[in-house]
Amino acid sequence: MKRTSRMLLILLAVLAMMAAACGSDDEAEAGGSEGTEAPGGTEAPSEGGEGASDAKAAFIMVAPIGDAGWNFMHNEGRLGAEEATGVETAYVDSIPEGSAEFDNAVQQFIDDGYNIIITTSFNYMDATEQFATDNPDVVFEHISGFKMNDTNFGNTFGRMYQPRYIAGMAAAAASETNRIGYVAAFAIPEVIRGINAFTLGAQAVNPDIEVEVVWTSTWFDPGVEGNAAQALIDNGADVLTMHQDSTATGEVATEAGATFIGYHSDMSAQVDAYLTAPVWDFTPRYTEILSSAAAGNFTPESFWGGIADGIVDIAIPDGSPVAAEMKEVRESIINGEFDVFEGEIIAQDGSAITDADGNLVVDLQDSFGNDIGAVGDALNDGILLGMSFFVEGVIGSAEG
Amino acid sequence: MTSASVELTNIWKRFPGGVTANAGANLRVEPGTVHAVLGENGAGKTTLMNVLAGVYRPEEGTVSLDGVPQSFASPAAAIAAGVVMVHQEFRLIPSFTVTENVALGESPRLLVRNSLEQQVGDLAERFGLHTEPGKQVWQLSMGERQRVEILKALWRDARVLILDEPTAVLTPQEATELGRIVAAMAADGRSIIFISHKLDEVTEFCDEATVLRGGATVAASLPVAELDKSRLAELMVGEATEVSIRRTRTTDVGDPLLEIRDLSMRDVHGVVTVDDVSLSVAAGEIVGIAGVAGNGQRPLADAIAGLAPIESGSIAVRDLDITPASPQARVDAGLAYVPEDRLGVGLAPRLNVIENAILRSYKSLTKGPFIDADAAEQMCEVLVDDYNVKVGQLDAPMAGLSGGNLQRLLVGRELAGRPSVVVAAQPTRGLDVQGVAAIQDILVEQSRTGTGVLLISEDLDELLALSDRLLVMHEGRVVAEFDPDAVTRAQVGEAMAGAVE
Amino acid sequence: MRLRLERRDRPLRGGQVRAFVVGVLIAFAVGAVLLVLSGHNPFEVYQKMLDSSFGSWRGLSTTLTQAVPLGLAGLAVAVAGSMGLWNIGAEGQIVAGAIGAAWVARLGPDLAGPLLIPLMLIAAVAAGGVYALGPALARSRLGVNEIITTLMLNEVAIRIVRYLQNGPWKDPTANNFPVTPELPAQAALPDLFERSNIGLLIAAAVILGFGVYTARSAWGYELRVAGSSADAARYAGISLKAKIFTVLVLSGAIAGLAGGIELTGSSSRLVEGVGGGYGYAGIIVAALALMRPSGVAAVAVAFGAVQVGGLAIQTTGVPASIANTLQALILFGALAAGVFGNYRVVRTAAAAPAGATA
After folding, report:
1. CA nearest B305: which of B475, B422, B157, B136?
2. Given CB atoms, is A7 within the 8 Å cutoff of chain C?
3. Which of A94, A113, B345, C100 is close enough to B341 for a disulfide, judged by CB 3.0 to 4.6 Å?
């Protein structure tokens, strides 16, 4: 008995060591909650689409595909694009950023004849750029960064602030305390932009709404996210939303009887308190890249698409008292009649940022002090990309 | 006649490697008595107690409790049957309270903490075990921790308690206190088995005594009240066997080579282990130290070798004060040490024979930063030849050698540096007949070349045969000095028992 | 009847290698079943693993590139391990080394490569050593278990990088993303062949050099004595405290070098994931090398090949979960073989009557 258990202990120790080594892969940035078995990489090319050609596309992901988060949506996009174009695709996941493993994976794909490489995590950017320089015949697309070249390397991101605005409308209609909690990862322009858009949308429904922000300084840490969410509940919020990679905020909302607005994907299966979520859909964009690369006419660009391009969207909850208004806003965003940041914008401290025509009334700088806009400028993409201020109605510091 | 509460009959227990720890041992303990189990190290006491406590299963023999034969598959089974052993190393969780430790394993009841503390307190009160049930164990003294162990046993309603050298970690006051507790438990009808080397305690605390020697029972259930300490000591060390060698005593003793003055030591618990010892060993002389195990011989040897801190006193080799010197500096000064634990202290078990052979001399075998492998091998071969070490391959791990060969290599290596003084602790323990003779020959030979030898042994025959002078240690003090040619075993036994002052 | 492990009097000699081979073969067999069950042809998969890791110069260089951090981390663990110490903190020390190297690049971004790179690597070594200083002092002075202290510092190192990239070292040109700036171009280690850079030479020199040094020097001998028995070491006059301190700091410094080489070799900026799990994998490498620095190089290359092969089969459609299981199986087979090299299974008759078994 004793000896057997000693043997078991030895085995367990060995296993634990291996788990520690293997597990470290999963500790990288993002990663949805674990769960369903990852679908196999290669699917047999389906009929239809433009088909033909010898194009093969490979996707590199930072964490397991999971069942709801960032990596999951990329895999959905991969499968959708494969179906639409007939281009064969494959992927690897759990590849840490800044590691030799990333290089190995990309090189392996290139050696295996893959001529479209899509890298889906921010810190893959530099290495992807290097590969693009070294492999002019291979098309590279990097997601969420800002680098590109003129021949074979582009980048893609989405105007998530558009659906965030509509999500803010739904949140305001659902709140009785007029206080909404927002669990946010890092004080970077992408996140700040989303918070501002969400707040503007909420105020469009109810001008008295306040949005309280708690920074977690992590993309994925269910424990920290849950604690932040609980603090917001304790401060009186009855609707929670987040810019994170786990569903911890939703779980706290469910427990507290609050309403939850998600992010990334439809989380209704995971979270009871789920109302709706601004979501990613990479299928149209990946379809476009795969088909143009397969046809030999890929042109690099800094793609920053909105709802009209299909890369971001939001489902309108039928039961919402403002469902009609939300539909209307969505339509007008799509046909270009409405822009989230148009008209007069007042900063958190009550000072004006833009006038009623949407032109700056102050000089703007990003968080490093770089000038991004001068008085009289329109609130253009450059300003959005460097946005470092909160609008009126946000509680919290935009400095993180 | 009522049945004994414990009866062990004709117990045999052998271990892999040919060691027979119990060879027909018997033990009978009456209910409500305190029963001493005595014997030297290696006499088989611990093995026999482990048989009773379900740790080992004997190849032969029976274990009965209250007349019912038992076959314990595990210590848990023994505990369930009411046999609990209190080990020397306490098995307590420091960050838990006394109550939590006592009631550990009965977690549902832990929920009602207050009433549980009350119950533990009541139980302690009943047997005069002074303790605070709410205190955490790390805050307790060694004596208090021992009481918690005893409480644990009582909590499980142990009918038979085995106390393994219970006073080793106690201050004299705590030991006296323990005597009272033991008496209270016996008065409650429980049987207590008391393992000890200390004859004072045996005569003071115990009703009966069983003496083991060489794995067998040599005296069973002696009524302690009718015995004196020297008789017990004699039983432990045994009658004179055949005298192997009786060397010619050194007549002309040279200059003193090892001089120890007023040496005192304490162990980690603050208990005095060596008490104001002075002795000297002269050139060509073999000085023997006798004593029941645990009376300060081992710390004394470690202190000379520089492996244990001392409290006061001085040690000199050839007039050079080595009291503050490092172990290596002592070797350089001419000291050689054959430690009691040959494999683990004197030799590194996982290293190979060559690596062990050069343990003392590797620094002189270097070429630049590297050890000269050829020189090392050569040196090892010389050692192996000279001391007749039987070894398969020189690059095989040390642990594969037999005890005799280990000791030959160790002694040979220590003597290779031509030391002035050799301290040899239990150099022949556990060796077979030839091994014993070989080591004894080496030591005698060495003394003839003018080396001073301090021989610490539990084998009285060996001491009487080899020593020029025989010192006896008791409770850390040198209590007697004898001329081996003019002393009887009984006289030595009395001194070992502390009967001489 | 029951089975138990009994330590062999001496380890299987030639048998050790044989045991490894058998262990790995069993692992491949089990893996094959797994592959068939998940609809893959095991022969093709194994062929791909072999081709990608050893089948071409490029594959070989990929394997060797992977072996560099594995080998240095394994060496760090093995140097401590040969003295019986467990440095579980190589991961953090790798990160610390990368921080040190990145710091030098920040201070002297305009230095020429031949000057900058050595300075960065020296800083990496120093930073790794400094990062192990706490556990080394705590263990040698106070007897605090180094397993716990080194392990805990792993997370701290990652937090430091996180702080740097969100705070003082935030890259002003990165569109406000929380990243550290790109390293100057001349900070990249020069290429050697195919995918390998001169980091391979540095690592090989260090690993093989240490292997020889610890196996043959008086210093290495003292380590082994202390690792075999602390009492024997004190008996032999070896200063344990000093030795423990030196060895733990040295272990950290070696891991730090791994971080420096990773940063200058494979990464264009300091990121949280620079450790890449190599510090933990190094524990397995060292265990497979039986804690002998001289065995680390071979194990690291084999382990690197398994990792490269495991990744390569993912690119052919074997899911990551299966590929990782396969890697784990191979490692497990090899480790288990290591156990059976030192132990044998013996049958013992149950002495107690069946009914009495608790």
Report:
1. B422
2. yes
3. B345
Residue B242 has pLDDT above 80, yes or no: no
Asked if B76's CB is within 8 angstroms of C358's CB, the reply is: yes
Which residues in C lie closer than 8 A to residue A217 (C-beta atoms)? 162, 166
CB contact under 8 A, B345 and C228: no
Domain containing residue B352: 345-418
| The pLDDT of residue A56 is above 90 | yes
Q: How many CB pairs under 8 A join B and C?
A: 90
> The domain that contains A65 carries what CATH number?
3.40.50.2300
**Two structure tokens written together for C43:** 């022969």
- List, for residues B259-309, the tens digit of each pLDDT value: 999 999 998 778 889 999 999 999 999 999 998 777 899 999 999 999 999
Looking at the fold, whether B298 and B250 belong to one and the same domain comes out as yes
pTM, two decimals, is 0.76
DSSP per-residue codes, A148-216: --SSSEEEEEE-THHHHHHHHHHHHHH-SSSEEEEEES--SHHHHHHHHHHHHHHHHH-TT-EEEEEE-
What pLDDT is stored for residue A243 in this prediction?
95
Question: Which of B161, B93, B97 minimizes the C-alpha distance to B127?
Answer: B161
The residue extents of the domains of chain C are: 75-276
8 Å CB contact between C318 and A41: yes
Collect the ranges in chain C with pLDDT lower than 50.
1, 349-358
For residues B457 and B492, membership in a common domain is answered with yes
The residue segments making up the domain with residue A108 are 56-158+281-312
Residue B146 included in any domain: yes
Q: How far is A49 from chain C (nearest CA, A)?
A: 22
Residue A122 has its nearest CB partner, among C177, C267, C318, at: C177
Closest alpha carbon within chain C to A61: C320
Which of A28, A90, A126 is opposite residue C317, by nearest beta carbon?
Answer: A90
* Pairing of the two strands B60-65 and B68-70: antiparallel
Note whether C235 contacts B339, CB cutoff 8 Å. yes
CB within 8 Å: B345 and C231: yes
Interface test with C, best of B332, B337, B371, B374 (most C CBs within 10 A): B371
Rounded (10°) CA dihedral A379, A383, A387, A392:
-10
Choosing from B361, B388, B418, the residue where a domain stops is B418
Only one residue has tokens 């490894």, namely C20
| pLDDT value for C347 | 60
List, for residues B17-34, the tens digit of each pLDDT value: 556 788 999 999 999 999
Strand partners, A91: A59
Candidates C207, C203, C198; CA nearest to C117 is: C198
Assembly ipTM: 0.80
- Per-residue pLDDT of C94-120, as tens digits, reads 999 999 999 999 998 999 989 999 999
My answer on whether B426 and B412 are in the same domain is no
A3 in contact with chain B, both atoms CB, cutoff 8 A: no
Q: Which residues of C touch A219 (CB under 8 A)?
A: none
Residue pairs spanning A and C at CB distance below 8 A: 177
Tokens 């992901």 found at: A61
Q: How many domains does chain B have?
A: 3
Residues A392 and A352: beta-carbon distance below 8 Å? no
When comparing pLDDT for C346 and A167, which is higher? A167
- CA of A16 to nearest chain B CA: how many angstroms apart? 25
Q: Quick: pLDDT tens for A35-44.
A: 333 333 444 4
- With 90 as the cut, is the pLDDT of residue A45 above it? no
**B192 pairs with which residues across the strands?**
B34, B161
User: CA distances (Å), B116 to each of A29, B84, B128, B131, C123, in order?
Assistant: 49, 21, 18, 14, 59
Q: What is the pLDDT of residues B405-421, one digit of tens each?
A: 888 999 999 998 889 99
Same domain for A206 and A291?
A: no
Chain C: give the shortest CA distance to residue B128, in Å.
34
